[in-house]
Design brief:
Distance between the termini: 51 Å
Strand content: 15-25%
Number of domains: 2
Structural class: alpha/beta
Radius of gyration: 22 Å
Strand order of the largest sheet: 1-2-3-4-6-5
Shape: globular
Number of strands: 6
Length: about 270
Amino acid sequence: MSDFQDYLDKCTFCTDSFMSYAFDGDTELATTLIQVLLNRDDLVALSCEAQKTAVSLNKESTFDILAQDKKGNLYDIEIQNRIQNNEIKRARYYSSALDTKSLNKGSDYNHLKENYVIFLLQGPVFKENEKPIYHFIMKEIENDKVLEDGRHILFVNLNYKFGYELDDKMNDLKYLFNDLNESEPDKIWYTSFRNKMNLIKNTEGGRSKMELKYNSIFLKGKEEEKERRTIEIISNGFKNNLSLEIIASMAGISVEEVEQYIKDNHLDHN
């Protein structure tokens, strides 16, 4: 079995590369996801883009999945397989980035649409009172009056253990969580997810496009590893008071490139 085939067989919708390929341009998938997570069948996605870049103030952000519904409301869906303990502040930043993206220069602030930042996680953000979804909005501290500014932040625990006697809402969530974590198309409940996984894994066109994505990821990984090793060599050279010429020789790059690394990575030559 080839490395790619082994990789493809193990892919789920929570595999970053697989999900970005699956969701890019697929409004049906996006609609199913947001309807089930928010328990609202009136939400319909009109657009869906993967790895969408936006600039907010001085920082560039890349949304894993960016969808927009028929009312203009925006949904940022972030896939994260490991808790990084920065999710709360990241969600705050992404919400602001969505606002920046949705409001044109000179527009009235009342034209801001609702935005939803949704983190799909393989574990709970909060250990106490564990739930499948934490849905946050702004409220007044003393009397719980809702500040209707249109911001929503959701942390979704895809590893939540459901019980047996479930209402319709919880049943729908259970099926969705299973589908997002499942690698075999025949075991997927929702039709849109099952059909998309079949298309990618079991058709020549889907497999070919996924293989191209796999190869680009592999190449990017090698380049990132080379970059990491170069910075490590330069940093260690500085610690040992080596000359720029010796560091350049050890790293296999020119002195000019070493100087550029120093500038770009804020290294100090002590």
